Amino acid sequence: MGVVVRLCVECDHDKCLDIARDLRDWFSLSGLEKMAVDLRLYDTHCAYLDGELAGFINLKYSATMVEIVWLAVKREFQGHGVGTALLGYAEEVARRRGVGLMVVKTSGDLGYEPYTKTRRFYESRGFMPILSVNPYPEWGEPMILYVKCL
Ligand SMILES: CC(C)(COP(=O)(O)OP(=O)(O)OC[C@H]1O[C@@H](n2cnc3c(N)ncnc32)[C@H](O)[C@@H]1OP(=O)(O)O)[C@@H](O)C(=O)NCCC(=O)NCCS
């Protein structure tokens, strides 16, 4: 069975947070607190693999772009195409809204291995690094801004 993606309902938000809480190499406690707010503030879409919640993507819309605010795949499902399916779904959402640009901010700490994999993921899926800020004021640590033209 493949990956199925759909808009989250309220009761999925806590399960999404549980997925992220288990990914402490990527998400700090302060990040998790912000995530809890953003999951409700912006559209969250869930991916199911064989009927089980496997990951989610949280999207913020503007007139010109769609921003990936949060993206996470359950540890045991990573590397099985769930993240790629969520990105593809987000791109479809953007196209339907008539938006031609996707953006995502991610860690620019080049010496921190977990985010090396994350950046490789975005780059291999067509995202280009266009801006590096160190420190990014909102995070107090390095940030790289990636964009993808649809
Ligand atoms: C980055 C992430 C969303 C990718 O989702 P995924 O389902 O593991 O990715 P897919 O299976 O669709 O694609 C696998 C690709 O991602 C890369 N990848 C990145 N992180 C990976 C990980 N932790 N495990 C396995 N593959 C990973 C692989 O190198 C692979 O690349 P390739 O197909 O070009 O060889 C997911 O690994 C994750 O949740 N990581 C931790 C949280 C995170 O980084 N979130 C984004 C914050 S901006």
Automatic annotation (TrEMBL):
Q: Which residues form the signal peptide?
A: none
| N-acetyltransferase domain: residues covered | 3-148
Which portions of this protein are annotated as coiled-coil regions?
none
Keywords in alphabetical order: Acyltransferase, Transferase
Pfam families recorded for this chain? Acetyltransf_1
GO MF: acyltransferase activity, transferring groups other than amino-acyl groups
The identity of this protein, by name, is GNAT family N-acetyltransferase
Species, as recorded = Candidatus Marsarchaeota G2 archaeon ECH_B_2
